Amino acid sequence: MNEKVEITDESDQFNLTKDPTALVLFRQNYTTSHEGLYDKLPVSRIKPDTLMDLPATFEYPNGVYMAITEANLLDYAGMYLVKHNGVLQSSLSPLPHQKEIKVIAKLPHNSPWRVMMISDRVGALMESNILTNLSEPCRIKDVSWIKPGKTTFPWWNGNVTPDTSFAPGNNYETNMYYVNFCAKYGLGYHSVVEYGLHEWYVNDGAGFQPGPHADPTHAVPGLDMQQICDSAKKLGVGIRVWVHFYALYPKLDETFAQFEKWGIQGLMCDFMDRDDQEMVNMQTEILEKAAQHHLHIQFHGAYKPTGTARTYPNEFTREGTLNYENDKWNTLVTPDADVNIAFTRALAGSTDYHLGGFRAANLKTFKQHYTAPMVLGTRCHMLGMYVVLENEQGMVCDFPDAYIGQPGFEFLQQVPLTWDETKVLNAEMSNCVTIARRKGDDWYIGTISNNTPHSIKTNLSFLPSGDYTAEIYSDGPDVDVNPNHLVKVTRQVNNKIILNTDLAAGGGQVIRLVRLK
Question: How far, in whole angstroms, is CA 331 from its chain's centroid?
């Protein structure tokens, strides 16, 4: 057929009766990193023609829950919702430099799926695989090289190093300090990012923005990427890098070829801040070409997942959420915000959140630090986030000495990043959530609470018959004074057990269940 069409609008409408309560992220326009705090309000109070990001979740008075999002977003524009004449309707991100045209295509052309997840149990929305099921099958023939793993991210902690004989910087010694930590404690990757607010690669721009001569095929003087990759490989550690999208994309082919030559195994691509058709296609191109060079991808400043990690499994994770990087400069990311993410953005898929801060604080004790930042919530709350959020590229973003000898670090070493089964055991929108995930015969249970204490019951009836060793990490009795304190108990359990747990304000709990042979 090959007839060219220009799509200027869609007519998808969602007429939500009974005035459900919406949990939604409002956006000022289509140029967005999708990072913000979610509002909870009746649909009747949503202002007309205000953009709402997806997924958006709705709670009905009769106990029914619905989330609206999209699946299989390829060669199309990202979708938002607006309320117009009292009805929610779709709104597509326009192509750059104009407002009317949303999609240019040749017929026949497929649009993404418009997805409504509906259940009388909100946890069922979290358990659903509908987005990946609706996406296209894998387009990468050989996936044997794709190996999810935890990674350092020294930018978050401020590139903290011990008092050593070498000068910290964009150099071999500083990066090997982190590589050696990864090798000793079983972390798969080290991320080479920056030092002193300058990227690891040549750039004459400021504030991490690419200048006219930005070039990620060349490291800054004094940083030998080949030497770092070779040394890390001998220790069984992979090297990843951070790259600004607008430094990478103009040199995509030569950069990926150079990365493969050095032995780099993956990258974070940052600062896209768009989901129009052009950007969607550029991200697809990045994934396809990255696969040709055996590179995995982590998108930051990017739109929500739509299930296409099934199509391109070298995409490990995406940001698209306000997260713990903000702890370096503000107090926006609270336990309340964390819980809301579980009921909204996390429904879409793998969620990067800069996990791993091991200096827990509450609102009274929190202080803003760009270096060695604090995090709001208890130590167990942070541990719980590793289970509550799906994330194939989990960060361990604090500095090594923040972890070594610290209670709970062993859980970060043990917790998997990919799962065989998910069950939601407790879920109260905006209050608390408990998620159990299975890897092989073993289960991991993570619970997080908002800024209100909760008493919950965790019913283990979902377990197969047989006995398990349960390692239970709970908030210490004095976490209102020291949120880093936790209590670890080991006991034998089976599927007849119900665990009673008191969650502190901003608290959490994790349980590792190892099946006894």
Answer: 19
User: Nearest 5°: phi and psi at 376?
Assistant: -85, 135
Percentages (nearest 5) of helix, strand, coil residues in the chain: 20, 30, 50
Distance, in Å, from the CA atom of 478 to the CA atom of 470, rounded to the nearest integer, reads: 23
CA distance 20 to 280: 32
Angle between helices 379-388 and 335-342 (to 10 degrees): 10
Q: Distance (Å, rounded) from C-alpha 494 to C-alpha 465?
A: 7
User: Using an 8 Å Cβ cutoff, are 475 and 508 in contact?
Assistant: yes
Which segments within 333-420 are labelled E, that is strand?
A: 360-361, 375-376
Q: What's the longest Cα–Cα distance across the chain?
A: 69
Residue 445 in tokens:
């249970």
Amino acid at 191: S
> What are the φ and ψ backbone dihedral angles of 244, each rounded to 5 degrees?
-70, 135
* Whole-number Å distance between alpha carbons of 408 and 400: 14
Are the C-beta atoms of 352 and 302 separated by less than 8 Å? no
Contacts with 348 (C-beta within 8 Å, 6 or more apart), sequence order: 54, 55, 69, 131, 304, 305, 306, 320
Determine contact, residues 387/427, Cβ cutoff 8 Å.
no
Look at residue 69 and give its three-state secondary structure: strand
Cβ burial 472-499 (10 Å sphere, 16+ → b, else e): bbbbbeebbeebbbbeeeeeebeeeeeb
Average pLDDT over residues 85-101: 97
pTM of the model: 0.97
pLDDT digit string, tens, across residues 162-181: 987 889 999 999 999 999 99
Average pLDDT for residues 221-241, to the nearest whole number? 98
Tell me which residue of 22, 14, 3 sits closest to 91, measured CA to CA.
14
Mean pLDDT, to the nearest integer, of 459-470?
A: 98
d(CA 378, CA 365): 12
State which H helix or E strand residue 267 sits in: strand 266-270
Range 386-406 burial, b when 16+ CB lie within 10 A, else e: bbbbbbbbbbbbbbbebbeee
Domains of the chain: 4-134 (2.70.98.10), 323-390+419-517 (3.20.20.70)
SS3 201: strand
Q: Are 80 and 66 in contact (CB under 8 A)?
A: no
As a whole number of angstroms, the distance between CA 477 and CA 154 comes to 32
The angle, 0 to 180 degrees and rounded to 10, between the axes of the packed helices 252-262 and 277-292 is 30
Q: Are the beta carbons of 431 and 410 closer than 8 angstroms? A: no
pLDDT in tens, 257-282: 999 999 999 999 999 999 999 999 99
- Cβ atoms 51, 26 nearer than 8 A: yes
Tokens of 303: 């739109």
Tens-place pLDDT, residues 11-58: 899 999 999 999 999 999 999 999 999 999 999 999 999 999 999 999
> Tokens 């991210």 label which residue?
153
Residue found by looking up tokens 């004790």 in the block: 365
